[in-house]
Amino acid sequence: MTHIIRIGGLAVILAVFGIFFFILKEIIPLFSKAEVVAESVAKTGTSPKVIGVDEWGERPFLYSGGSEIVVLAGEEGARQAVEVPSLAGVEVTAVSYDPVHHRVAVGLADGRVGSFVVKYESVFREGEPRKVDVSVEEEPWYELEAGSGAVRSVSYGDGGSKRLISVVRDEGVAVVQLAQKRSLIGAGKLTRVGETDLSERIRTEVISTVASQNGQAVLMATADGQVHYFLMDAGALDEVQTFQPFEGKPPKRMDYLFGGVSVAMTDESGQQRVFSLFRPEGSNTRLFGQTKEFGPVGEGTPVFASSLRNKSFLCGAGGGLAVRHLTSGATRWEGTAEFEPVAVTIDGKAENFFLAGAEGQVQRFSLHDPHPESGWRAFFGKVWYEGGSEPVHQWQSTGGSDDFEPKLSLVPLIIGSLKGTFYALLFSIPIALLAAVFSAAFLPPAMKRVVKPAMEIMASLPSVVLGFLAGIWLAPLIEDKVPSILLTCLVLPTVALLFGAGWSRVPIQVRHRFEHGREWIVLLPLVLIGGWLAWSLGPVIEKWFFVYTDPSTGKAIADFRLWWPQATGLSFDQRNSLVVGFAMGFAVIPVIFTIAEDALSNVPRTLTAAAAALGASRWQVVRTIFIPVASPGIFSALMIGFGRAVGETMIVVMATGNTPVKEWNIFSGMRTLSANIAVELPEAAPGSTHYRTLFLGALVLFLLTFVLNGVAEVLRQRLREKNKLV
Amino acid sequence: MSASSSKFSTTGRSRTGEPLVWLTAVGLTIGVLLSVGLIGLVMYKGFESFWPARLVVVEVRQEGGENSKVAGYLVQERSKRTLEGLVEEEIQLFRGNRELFGEKFVFLDREAIVSQTEEEDLILVERLEGGNVIGRAKALELGGSETLEASAEGFDEKLDELTERGEELRDELREIEKIKIGENSKRVKELRWLEKKGSSPERAEELAGLLAEYEKLDGQRKELREQLEESTFVVEAMDGRELKIPTGELLHVFAANQVGFFGRLKETIRRAWTFVSTDPREANTEGGVYPAIFGTVVMTLVMSLFVTPFGVMAAIYLREYAKQGPLVKAVRISVNNLAGVPSIVFGVFGLAFFIYFLGGVVDDWFFSNSEEPVYKSGGILWASLTLALLTVPVVIVATEEALASVPRGVREAALACGASKWQAIQRVVLPASLPGILTGVILAMARGAGEVAPLMLVGVVKSAPDLPIDAVAPFVHPERQFMHLGFHIYDLGFQSPDSEAAKPMVFATTLLLISIVVVMNLTAIIIRNRLRKKYAVSSF
């Protein structure tokens, strides 16, 4: 039996601590880097200009500028050539690749531009593993009216119904506009809508161009290092902005990142500056501004491929390679290639990437990076999100669109937790401590046996009940009674002080008839009357101090709800921190009261009696003996109260609007760590970044309360031992 | 009194700081008022939701037309300040009759009310679907063309009879739909699933038999449904429009203005009984909370089954077996601290460990044939285990205290008589500390019964079709999701589409939950106080 007890007891204790480690285990992957494993090299013998791959990362193709593409078939290193008939007998001078549509855009020596799409189709046959079939779909050729000579750079921007092909020729720059009518039967015919000659508008020599994935914008880089940004507006291309990514030299590459809002500018060392579109303060148009910078990776021709799932991208120069993540600004992986790549690509699931070398080598790397957007900086630092005009702390875990980027800063949530706790403690500490002092120092034992459980029973009220009452009953009740509440908070202590002062002037003969320790009962009617008076006088105060003037009509309205936003510029919500403070105060008062009362009651009677014998008044005994001796206990009571409020969930979920804001306004809501977990965890996919981040929030809560309670407990034990000695 | 004696009194103690003493007193006053006031509020609101209100007919002035009349009961009176600075006084009336009015509640402007009268013959009809009906009884349309006018002899008796008959029919229907057809279709589903993997003649035969049986049951079901709708109860609303309620849907007809105080008390008790004993209806806004009570009780009991032995074992180990030293002290402090860790953290752990990890393992081993996850989703077992973890520190701390308070002499006497350590613990120490352990378990149960946040992650739902323990083999279904009183409050108050209609239900549920928790806590406090007294004597 002894053994069973020993094993069982140890097991329970271990299990309880297992919680910590299990939560930690879920979080660790958030802080790990990307895993990249290099696999075998296949040789094709063609020197590729672009490399592309299907969504499953099975069959990469190479295109080297001829009239066929070379497709690698699986692991065996077998090759398959697919003809592109219309490219036979022409000289290709410029090539670019759009991985979203698997489209290769081609510019010719005679100035024509065109494109073909590599079609991947997965085929299921009975009893065989899935196969991917490859075919080529050719698209029309376009003659350019503007400029002359061979095409030096071409880019195809496919936005579905609206498309652009931007072209740089030996002489002149042009953009061809295409449109595809959507019809009920399917995709309609693709027609050429127009062509814009940009030669006149850009004075310096243009060396490269890139069209955006929505078919609405074009970037042109000139030899003097300028980048011109043109945007389609009402059928015409307007120049919106000119900027200089690198001082005095043109970028070697310009590539749009997933989502089409950011452009990575890469120089010959692989150093990158990322420019994102956002509205600068005071401007209505979205302009490019630098948001991130990444260091060099090597020396040579830069290569680049963007992930089609998230804001990660692969870049390289010389032999150096790096997987980077735009939002977090982190380098997820760094390494060197066996050969210098001339083209790279990432598959649609971002699980593999491929390098192609000048001699036709193709190497597959498997990439495992489930949480690229996470990291200390993403959770606790300010992050410059795409589309934002400055770095911010923000929590927004889910959004409507596919390219939505989760914003996972825990800072607004931690601030929300602290804010709720602060207002709860503001309400509960005075009441709980005053009550504890009175109960320990003055209350007769017979009365204490009734009063103490009456206070403690409050602790047993389920928080869901408090939250419900706060949200449904209290919030509407006090919404338009703020001045009344302020007044009540002032009046009640004043009434007690005044009454006490008056009472102490009463002749001792009268006072002696009154037994000590009943003051609180005497105050009951006074508190009720005072409270009622203050409550009904609230509107009067409101008329005096909180008058809102309607800016349009000039009418004066006495309403605190309107006055507050006008006077302070902050918002006023019905379910605000004041309500939460009250409701959570109810949960915290008994906790603080019980512990503080215990500490005060355990102050040795010898000390207090000695003080009284030396002529100290009742209050002097409290001030000089009770409070100093019990102060560690009181302090630990406050910390345990703090811990209780920080982790409170249901009250916050029910009594606030749950908006993650980063402000201390008492009349707005908040979202706390705990409420956030309760609201979002049931919806989060297990193993996702969101899921693990919520676990991180739980760990923060766990550690915070554990440490606070630990310190409080140690303090209390010390105090107990100290009082024993006296 | 002279000026000097105000500083130093020779007749009594100095009164320096006396006002501050009164300041501390006001803290206690407010604290007690808050505590008592809060519980009072919940009790008042809870009882109010059962107390039958008088039905009134309110005549309202309409602009440019005749006055209109509406019958109902008063829900609240309020004065609202609009953002334009005006004060609007209005009353809220429950008028029911959703088919006629759309909204069940209406706000009436005080100024527009012409008169407010209580009319004798108004009735409140509770029915299965569509919410309550308020109006005057008009007639009973019995099957065929037979009609019984409300003024006719024996009308009330006939109405009662039909209401009772309706209840019987509904019970029969439930039996067929839920149990017989339920079992049938479950087996059919299983067979079809097996069929996919490979067919066999026996299975095909069984399947055909089951399908034939289903046809038969379906026929019975249709027949019962027709019987339920055979006769109708016609109620006339104040504007003369008629509402026809099939008697099979009638639950209760109450003439609110004809009964006295005791009649209303009786109705209150009936409503309270219905509340605790029936299933919810109308998206939980009507009916009872029986499944939620059941879920709460079962979960708490299962939790205490886990928490008691393990908590006591850990406490005995810590107090009696472990070598007292800094390590045990640290462990003790940590266990104590765990009681202060937010409950949601335990919920997070429960979700990851019990559901996704343990549940996944169990499903892989035993239920790999099942299409849907069985244990890899929230259920009452996982919820109980999560709460057991949450409350085990409470039991450990209480048990340790109880063990420590057993006088040393008693223990030594047992050892001196030749008992082994375990014998001493088992025969002497444990029985002596039983009340303390019991206190801990009750406190743990009270805490567990009131927790909601972790449950939201590990298996509580707003509406569970089946109870975790029922008459269908294997009778105990630890994997089933369940309803819970605390979650019911949250869901009704904040997720309900008709939150106004749900309010009385929420207050009633709140009262119920608080009663359970407060009674448990008070019991624990009383046991603890008795215990203290007992040992206060024996330890000297």
**What's the CATH C level of the largest domain in chain B?**
Mainly Alpha
Which parts of chain B are unreliable, with pLDDT below 50 for 5 consecutive residues or more? 1-11
- Whole-number average pLDDT of chain A? 87
Number of helices of chain A: 15
Which of globular, elongated, flat, extended, rod-shaped describes the shape of chain B? globular
How much of the sequence of chain A is in beta strands?
25-35%
Proper CATH architecture of the domain at 409-479 and 574-721 in chain A: Orthogonal Bundle
> What is the CATH topology assignment of the domain at 409-479 and 574-721 in chain A?
MetI-like fold
Commentary on this structure:
- The complex is a heterodimer of chains A (726) and B (540).
- Chain A is of the alpha+beta class and 726 residues long.
- Chain A has 15 helices and 32 strands.
- In chain A, the strands form nine sheets. A four-stranded antiparallel beta sheet of chain A has the order 1-28-27-26, with no helix packed on it.
- The longest helix of chain A is centred in the last third of the chain and has 37 residues, at 689-725.
- Chain B folds into three domains: 46-138 and 250-277, no CATH class; 143-230; 290-538, MetI-like (MetI-like fold), CATH 1.10.3720.
- Helices cover 58% and strands 14% of the residues of chain B.
- In chain B, the strands form three sheets. In chain B, strands 6, 7, 8, 9, 10 and 11 form a six-stranded antiparallel beta sheet that branches. In chain B, strands 4-3-2-1-5 form a five-stranded antiparallel beta sheet, with no helix packed on it.
- In chain B, helix 1 crosses helix 14.
- Chains A and B meet through helix 1, helix 3, helix 4, helix 5 and helix 6 of A and helix 1, helix 6, helix 7, helix 8 and helix 9 of B.
